[in-house]
Specification:
It is a single chain. The protein is of the alpha+beta class and 240 residues long. It has 7 helices and 8 strands, in the order ββββαααααααββββ. The strands form 2 sheets. Strands 1-2-3-4 form a 4-stranded antiparallel β-sheet. A 4-stranded antiparallel β-sheet has the order 7-6-5-8. A hairpin with a 4-residue loop joins β5 and β6. The chain is elongated, with a radius of gyration of 20 Å. The N and C termini lie close together (10 Å). The N terminus is likely disordered.
Length: 240
């Protein structure tokens, strides 16, 4: 994972940068060239140094300046750079969750704590901005770690506790939050992970144990890249 003053980001397999803007609660996908433009403007206040460097390599000056101006305008529209008057923000990328696995048989005590966790998750995800939600979940960092089996059991219990009649959203963020809360209610810690993958650009939420066992990260043929985790994962698992 890579930290940026405005976001947490990770480079995906195709070179795309998936960036999570926690403050504004949105996902952005940036090309490596766009990230270069962004860093140049934040560091130097304009794209002039980058334009000079590219022109010195023999590229056409007019085309370089036009391309950089268009890139800067797109970054401004995304809210990453000061926007000129009348600029409309870019549409946020949709969050897509993979199909859940079968919950199987879940013991009543696990289903009960999962139902409480799910009720809490639905409430807090609905009313809290993402930055506040993540700050709240960071409180579990002092709890002892859950095992892979405990995390998988509670995740399955959350899936089993989802009421079929519920008219609102019960997607990956709610399920991952509920699993994190349910684990905390049993005195254990899991980490909520927000990640992404390219082609098409998608975002997803799941949980992982401190030992690195992911639960709820579906589709191994197109693996998810973790972008942000709360509580923060140990360095040896940050890029798993």
């Amino acid at each position: 994972m890579h930290s940026h003053p405005l976001m947490t980001a990770v480079r995906l397999a195709d070179g795309t940068i998936a960036a999570l803007d926690v403050v504004r609660d949105r996902w952005l996908w940036l090309s490596p060239d766009a990230v270069h433009v962004l860093d140049t403007v934040l560091c130097h206040g304009s794209t002039v140094p980058l334009a000079k460097a590219l022109t010195a390599q023999g590229q056409d000056e007019v085309r370089v300046r036009t391309a950089l101006a268009d890139a800067a305008e797109g970054l401004a529209a995304a809210g990453l750079l000061p926007a000129p008057p009348g600029t409309k923000p870019l549409t946020e990328a949709a969050t897509v969750a993979g199909p859940p696995p079968l919950a199987g048989r879940v013991r009543w005590r696990h289903r009960l704590v999962a139902a409480v966790g799910l009720a809490v998750a639905v409430a807090v995800v609905k009313v809290l901005p993402l930055c506040r939600l993540l700050a709240l979940l960071a409180a579990v960092r002092h709890l002892p770690p859950a095992t892979a089996r405990q995390a998988a059991t509670l995740h399955a219990a959350v899936l089993a506790a989802r009421p079929v009649w519920w008219p609102g959203r019960l997607a990956c963020l709610e399920v991952a939050t509920a699993t994190t809360v349910a684990a905390a209610l049993t005195g254990r810690r899991v980490h909520l992970v927000l990640g992404a993958r390219p082609l098409p650009n998608e975002a997803h939420a799941w949980v992982t144990t401190p030992a690195g066992s992911a639960v709820g990260a579906y589709a191994p043929d197109r693996p998810w890249a973790p972008v942000h985790a709360v509580p923060p994962l140990p360095d040896n698992h940050a890029n798993e």
